[in-house]
């Protein structure tokens, strides 16, 4: 996995299939922020961690996207049983929280976690750089994932908090701007 | 723009329209990597800078996405006149390059820039953490942007190079992992 740009010019470039493991390693070269997409359903918090989130997909209306694997057990519950979804951008000091909510132990995901859910069920974590209240705007199948477009209905920011970035298979913290 | 999470619980939350300027400021709280999407068309390099790129939207097939404003003059040329597109992830030390290619002076965007274009026209920059050779897989309208899904056909990585992140309206460099 150390192909130079010159490889691109090879006539056979693109002919061989890309191995998923190699792909994953390559994709980790692209720095990505991390979010928790969550809702309270029948009084129980449900949420998933996504590293495929993008803001600014549209400003009018305000749209954001994330992708989720077809194998996700949580996404069908969120999609089908929640009218609104909270999106919480994980902050620089929240990597432990991120690991907890990403865990396979669904019952323990929100144990001890500070969050607020509104009357519509949208659930956001506390102490994050940015949270959004959203609802599903569009969803379509993209290979082995669903690509979900969310419309932003409300939001809150805390500019003193910086984001966490997943990069080269490691969590990296970004400094907040000087006040 | 310093709403606390408690704002979410207000009954009127979500009722007021979100101002595009405030939205942009809020979205800047989410750290995003930056790419150049480019092709050589009739011997001339054409490209645009996108801060709405996401990898890992699917692994089988390998899909990535980016969003581009309807007002872009460059995207219609790339979409209509290029069969394949190169995607170059901007590295930690390439913020100047990023600004140059984002400039309104189209003729000068690639002046002095080191790049390689293959026989299919896919154009990638040199010295980047990651480049991808892609073709358009799907495109759909998402508000005031087009959301473009690209299929990855080939790629190259340089793990010694770290990515550049746009965060809180500033370029921030990530450290590369220790070798």
Overview of the structural elements:
The structure is a homodimer of 179-residue chains. Chain A has 179 residues and is mainly β. Chain A has a single domain, classed as Electron Transport, Fmn-binding Protein, Chain A (Pnp Oxidase, Chain A, Roll). Chain A is built from 3 helices and 12 strands; from the N terminus they run αβββββαβαββββββ. In chain A, a hairpin with a 2-residue loop joins β4 (54-59) and β5 (62-69). The longest helix of chain A has 8 residues, at 20-27. At the A-B interface, α1, β1, β4, β5 and β9 of A face α1, β1, β4, β5 and β9 of B.
Q: How many domains in all of chain A? A: 1
Largest binding interface between chains: A-B, 86 and 87 residues
CATH class of chain A, named: Mainly Beta
The CATH superfamily of chain A bears the name Electron Transport, Fmn-binding Protein, Chain A
Average pLDDT for all residues of chain A? 89
Shape of chain A: globular
What Rg of chain A do the Cα atoms give? 18 Å
CATH architecture of chain A: Roll
Q: Biggest sheet of chain A, open or closed, and with what strands and sense?
A: 7 strands, antiparallel
Q: In terms of per-residue confidence, which ranges of chain A show pLDDT below 50 for 5 or more consecutive residues?
A: 1-6, 9-15
H/E element sequence of chain A: HEEEEEHEHEEEEEE
* Oligomeric grouping of the chains: homodimer
Distance between the termini of chain A: 41 Å
């Amino acid at each position: 996995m150390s192909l130079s740009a010159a490889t691109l010019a090879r006539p056979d470039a693109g002919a061989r299939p890309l191995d998923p493991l190699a792909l994953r390693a390559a994709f980790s070269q692209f720095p990505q922020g991390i979010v928790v997409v969550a809702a309270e359903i029948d009084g129980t918090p449900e949420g998933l961690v996504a590293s495929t989130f993008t803001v600014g997909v549209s400003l009018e209306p305000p749209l954001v996207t994330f992708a989720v694997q077809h194998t996700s057990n949580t996404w069908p519950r969120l999609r089908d049983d929640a009218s609104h979804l909270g999106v919480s951008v994980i902050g620089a000091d929240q990597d432990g929280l991120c690991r907890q909510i990403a865990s396979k132990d669904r019952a323990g995901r929100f144990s001890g976690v500070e969050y607020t859910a509104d009357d519509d069920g949208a659930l956001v974590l506390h102490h994050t750089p940015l949270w959004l209240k959203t609802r599903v705007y569009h969803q379509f199948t993209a290979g082995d994932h669903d690509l979900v477009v969310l419309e932003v209905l409300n939001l809150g920011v805390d500019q003193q908090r910086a984001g966490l970035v997943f990069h080269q298979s490691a969590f990296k913290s970004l400094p907040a701007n000087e006040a």
